[in-house]
Amino acid sequence: MNMIEAINSGLDNMMARDDDVVIMGEDVGYFGGVFRATAGLQEKHGKTRCFDTPISECGIIGVAVGMAAYGMRPVPEIQFADYIYPGLDQLVSEAARLRYRSAAEFTSAITVRSPFGGGIFGGQTHSQSPESMFTHVCGLKTVIPSTPYDAKGLLISAIEDNDPVMFFEPKRIYNGPFTGYYDKPVEPWSKFEASEVPEDYYKIPIGKANIVREGEAVTVLAYGTMVHVANAVVEEHGIDAEVIDLRTLVPLDIDTIEESVKKTGRCLIIHEATRTSGFGAELSALVQERCFYHLEAPIERVTGFDTPYPHSLEWAYFPGPVRIGEALDKIVGELTS
Amino acid sequence: MAEDNSKTNLPPLSLHVPEPKYRPGDTVDYSDVTIPRAGDQPRPDVNSAPAAMREMVYDMVRVLDDDYKAVGPWDPKLSDDTLLKMLKTMAQVRAFDDRLHRMQRQGKTSFYMKCTGEEATSVAAAMALDSDDMCFPSYRQQGILFVRGYPMVEMINQIFSNREDKLKGRQLPIMYCSRRLGFFSISGNLATQYPQAVGWAMASAAKGDTRIAATWCGEGSTAEGDFHSAMTFATVYNAPIIMNVVNNQWAISSFSGFAGGERTTFAARAAGYGIAGLRVDGNDPLAVYAATQWAAERARTNNGPTLIEHFTYRADAHSTSDDPSAYRSAQEREEWPLGDPITRLKRHLIHRGVWSKEQHEALDKECIEAVKVATKEAEKNGILGHGLHQPFETMFQDVFEEMPWHLKEQSEQANKEREIKWPDAEASK
Ligand SMILES: Cc1ncc(C[n+]2csc(CCOP(=O)(O)OP(=O)(O)O)c2C)c(N)n1
User: Fold this and answer.
1) Do B82 and B349 contact (CB within 8 A), yes or no?
2) For strand A141-143 and strand A165-170, is the pairing parallel, antiparallel, or unpaired?
3) Cβ distance B307 to B269 under 8 Å?
4) C-alpha B137 to ligand 1 mean position (Å)
5) How far apart are CA A252 and CA A141, in angstroms?
6) What pLDDT sits at residue B429?
7) Do A103 and B398 touch (CB under 8 A)?
8) Nearest residue in B to A91, CA atom
9) Which pLDDT does position B428 carry in this prediction?
10) What is the pLDDT of residue B233?
11) Where does the record place the 2-oxoisovalerate dehydrogenase E1 alpha subunit N-terminal domain (chain B) (predicted)?
């Protein structure tokens, strides 16, 4: 399965298992979503389980919070992460804090799914990576998969989670992993092991990172599309890097990170989102606080630039192999040659 | 394309900024407020199409006439017992508000909000609902909790944020919550409860339940996007919900004109969405009851949502942080043409021969005494600012279902600081 099919399968499994799981969003019903992630679900599970909504993100999220207060498990889709902002207050002030302010009398077991990230010529309004806005909010969990297998397992965990989860799907890798070389053809997921996704229910726990590549020379922290870009660059330069796919930003798997950086003594952080106040800043601070005496080089960050996502200069903006290679060179210089 | 110089003779455009009719010191004249005769308004069938009853959004449903008799097709024909319960509950709410407002002035809590003059819009409305219907209130609907029997001591514990506060001292005073009584957690962010209530109602419908939802906001809050999103969702999915707009004329110091009230009624918002709308005399408890009952029956029979505008007046300050004499004429309250809801119901019951002035005086005393007793009881659990009422761990609980490592670390930090900052503090565990 590719990532879209895996997400579809995760939703399908959960709808079959639990009547309280409902899907709602712009175009998700009859049509099955603009990325087809919900294709066939309305036909299979009925119009009241998977339905289209008005174009009102405030309404979609507010209504989902109310449905969750009733006892359901809504999975609202925001068509592109760039369009979450009209619904932001319902997430930040309501969903995130309902459990706290009601002393757990009411909870918002909602999973907000949304495609995010760039690299598809989506321009400013179809390319943003807003995850750090949500990691800053107390009470929200933030999950980002990087493979079809993970996407399904993490999504099922998110839907079963009793807390509100932001589930960001890296749309650049919906159909196949992306190495950062925009001028080379993308290979489909079918060629990779992670595309072997069981039809049935399975879970990947929220809050557990994945060491996708073991190594001794440097720890590379990445998530979503950037896991694949990092892997490609590391391989190309023949660096003995340990690449960690964070999978979940909140709650973060600090133990895995700490252990790895203490072993390698070096750390590179990569994300697509803009640099200033991005999640990389948090990661960098944590690594510094916990591993300072083990560090043999300054922590480096590779990120998007602090500009809106440019349409025509997309590939100049994207934190690709050149930017990552340079950073690695800075950290593990003597190893690259 | 118009010619370049075609506009040279036009006066310049001008911007309209609404201004209330009266400011402090002004003499109030309510003669332009149209108050139709009680009993004159038609009562459409609950399954009428919204388009067939469009005039209702400009009219005003009234039951009590100038002689305090109940008249017309909207008379809900309630029993003496029910009406007496309504009167007593409203009187109790008012006595509660008066005392708790004073407690804030005495420094026992940080904040308080009264609903003086608006008691009918929550008490009569809640009485017309089933006890298991779900309410998504704003901050002036304490009356619902009184109708549903929430103990006053619990309310005061919340207001004092003391050690018995069910919400663990996390919410601003009066931001109550009771799942058991169908009273949703109040948000300080205006109008957010509107789409949530619609979502709850949609879930109830999707599950084939029989319960409906009701929500309340002020007329000022109708300008929020949430209100309009909620209206759209309610109409699109025919949600079983009653959406109450309590038009008390003032949103802190801004008069209703800043929410669009100069040009049309708030009930008329319903017409634009194709849903049923009623404008009601909000100081007439019988009219509020009748309208709510009508809308509830409509919702319960799959005839969809209703918007009810309660035309009323905020007789007191917005909150303990507000001084209305700084922005409105003192006469406004005195001369409010729809009177006071408690007085009107009292006179109605006296007129019916089931109540008397003496009984009412005794009731007021009883209500004051009951709050006094409840307050004393609650004070035993502490007041705001006196003592560290909640164990510090509670600050970190309920952010998530399970506490992640970073909150555990911060919780330990807070407890360590406690020993340094308050070495003598009695552990309130
Ligand atoms: C989103 C938001 N904006 C502003 C405020 C500050 N605020 C609190 S009450 C209020 C006035 C509300 O007026 P209205 O809706 O008419 O209700 P009323 O107080 O008259 O009952 C304002 C502006 C808030 N709580 N939330």
Assistant:
1) no
2) parallel
3) yes
4) 13
5) 9
6) 40
7) yes
8) B192
9) 45
10) 98
11) 11-50
Identify the bridge partners of residue A168 per DSSP, sorted by sequence position.
Answer: A114
Q: Please, which contacts does A180-183 make with residues 24 or more away whose CB atoms are closer than 8 Å?
A: A180/A228, A180/A229, A180/A232, A180/A233, A180/A318, A180/A320, A180/A321, A180/A324, A181/A232, A181/A320, A181/A321, A182/A119, A182/A315, A182/A318, A182/A320
Q: What is the ipTM of this complex?
A: 0.92
Closest residue (by CA) to atom 13 of ligand 1?
B251
Give the pLDDT score at B208: 97
- Integer Cα distance of B320 and B105 in angstroms: 8
Helices and strands: H and E segment counts in chain B: 12, 7
Angle at which helices A3-17 and A148-160 cross, to 10°: 30
DSSP 8-state secondary structure symbol assigned to residue A276: T
Residue-level pLDDT at B2: 64
Alpha-carbon distance B26 to nearest alpha carbon in chain A (angstroms):
40
* Residue A334 confidence class, pLDDT cut points 50, 70, 90: low
Q: Which pLDDT does position B3 carry in this prediction? A: 64
Q: How far apart are CA A327 and CA A298, in angstroms?
A: 11
Does the beta carbon of B292 lie inside 6 Å of ligand 1?
no
CA distance A253 to A223: 13
| Integer Cα distance of A220 and A215 in angstroms | 10
Catalogue the E-assigned strands of B145-249: 213-218, 241-247
Low-confidence ranges of chain B (pLDDT < 50): 428-429
pLDDT at A143: 98
Side-chain-side CA neighbours of residue A2 (13 Å): 18
Q: In the numeric block, which tokens belong to residue A34?
A: 């603009």
The rounded Cα B247 to chain-centroid distance in angstroms is 10
Exposure of A32 in the CB half-sphere (CA atoms within 13 A): 17
| Coil/strand/helix, residue A233 | helix
φ, ψ of residue B112 in degrees (nearest 5): -155, 150
Residue A286's pLDDT is: 98
- Minimal CA–CA distance to A303: which of A286, A332, A323? A323
A331's enclosing H/E stretch is: helix A321-336
**pTM greater than 0.90 (yes/no):** yes
Q: Which residue has the higher pLDDT, B251 or A336?
A: B251
**Contacts of residue A214, Cβ cutoff 8 Å, sequence gap at least 6:** A242
| Burial zone of B417 (CB within 10 Å; 0-12 exposed, 13-18 middle, 19+ buried) | exposed
Nearest by CB to B185, from A62, A102, A250: name it: A102
Q: Is the dihedral of CA B167, B173, B179, B184 positive or negative?
A: negative
